[in-house]
Structures are given as C-alpha cells and as structure tokens.
Amino acid sequence: MSSPSAGPGAASVATVNGYHVMDCIGEGSFGRVFRGRKKFSSEVVALKGTKSARELRNLKKEIDIMQGLKHQNIVRMLDTFETEKEVVAVTEYAHGELLQILEDDMQLPEEIVRSIACQLVSALYYLHAHSILHRDMKPQNILLGNNGAVKLCDFGFARSMGINTMVLTSIKGTPLYMSPELMEEKPYDHSADLWALGCILYELLTGSPPFSTNNII
C-alpha cells in the first residue's frame, strides 16, 4: 500500500481496493498504518499493511482473531484485501490515543480513569470468555473514539487458547506491563492481561507506571 503522492500534478489521495488512502498515522517493524476513507462514503477507516514475510504471518493471525470479535470496546475489523505487494487489514478508526493524552496531561481525574477501567474490564471479560489473551495491554494499544468510548486495538500478540491449552509459555508483551510470571518466564494465563490493566490504571492515576524497566531480566 503506497503512501499518497505529493508531487506536482499528482493526485493528492491514492486509492486502493475501494479506499482512499490519506495520511500515515503509524509505522513500525510490522509495516505502516494509514488513515483512509471508504469510497463514496464519509466512513473513515484505518488501513494496516505489511510486506515482510514474518510480519505477514503475524498480520494474518491478527486478522483471524479480530474477524471473530464484536464488542463496543474492541476496534472492529471491517475488511481485508491483498494487493500485489501486501496484505491489508481495514479496521474502524478511533481518532484519539490514550498514550498521547497521558503524555500531555500526565495523569487523569479519578472519574475518567474509572470510566476507562470499566470499559477495558468489559473488553477483557469478552476476550477471556472467548478464550483469547491480548498479551500486549499498554496505553499505546488503547484508542479513544467518540463520546469517550475506549477501544482496545493491536492484536498482533493475541493468542486464541485451544480446548486443551490452559497456560502459555511464550514471552510476549511490553516489560513495563508484564506480569511477574512472564518476567520469570513461567507459564501464564489470562491473569497476565489483568495485571497489565492494573499497571495501566495506576499510571493513569499517578502519571507514572508502577515499575520502571525496559528489560525482562
């Protein structure tokens, strides 16, 4: 998915598979995320594409998990398509980022944190009831939609638990929000998501995470 052309005489907005591709809103090892608009409508979406073989496998797993999710506090998967160069996932677009609010305001009032907590607990309850672990709960993966709606996103590390799978052992997540069993490389379950949520809420209330580390050792 190419970025919009900006040269003289070029179209200001590129179009791919029925979507106008607008500005790039995120970039990392996984690929890039663009803000877009569905053709012939005012619906704004997010388009996430990747080209590397490794990240392509991860994105396909993420798509498989997200296509089965339907909850008001989880970013909805709207569409997927393939171009000659990459696979693209189309999700609903949420205009605000919890991380940006935290960086600007340092800490949030208790009533706002309470509202965020209730919505994230609801999202996690839904995921865990469907045997899905998010495994990367952090402010960067929490978006804010209209009217204060909280949206959990980025299911790149998510894992669907099978009938015979009670615990996981692979180390996934961000050290600041990882549970003790993850840090100690021990088996873990859905409680790892709840630990991360507690760390996030602590940070929202105080302005600093409860622990300070970028390493798991």
From TrEMBL:
It catalyses: L-seryl-[protein] + ATP = O-phospho-L-seryl-[protein] + ADP + H(+); L-threonyl-[protein] + ATP = O-phospho-L-threonyl-[protein] + ADP + H(+). Its EC number is 2.7.11.1. GO terms for biological process: smoothened signaling pathway. Pfam families: Pkinase. SMART domains: S_TKc (SM00220). ATP binds at K48. GO terms for cellular component: cytoplasm. The keyword Kinase applies. Keywords: ATP-binding, Kinase, Nucleotide-binding, Serine/threonine-protein kinase, Transferase. Residues 19-217 form the Protein kinase domain. GO terms for molecular function: ATP binding; protein serine/threonine kinase activity. Belongs to the protein kinase superfamily. This is non-specific serine/threonine protein kinase. It comes from Macrostomum lignano.
